[in-house]
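The methods section describes the discrete structure representation at length, but only in general terms. Since the whole study asks how a given chain folds, the encoding of that fold should be made plain. An entry of this sort, consisting of the sequence and the corresponding backbone structure tokens, reads as follows:

. . .
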Amino acid sequence: MKINELDNVALTHDIKDYGLSAGTVGTVVHKYIDAKAFEVEFMDAVGTTVGVITLKPDDIRPLKKNEMLYAPPQHL
């Protein structure tokens, strides 16, 4: 499936430098020529940007129609 700017995508692996886990959802804010890389913005639940990261196509995947977003339980 083709990925375009403003699409929501999910990480295919952890990115520990940013504290992001596989499956974390971000938004494509820039698609490079020939879709060889993407700038993806990751935000927390209140809209604060966690990071804008340059990723390769293998690092992300499009969301499927029936996938649900959720907030994992917080450990206090």
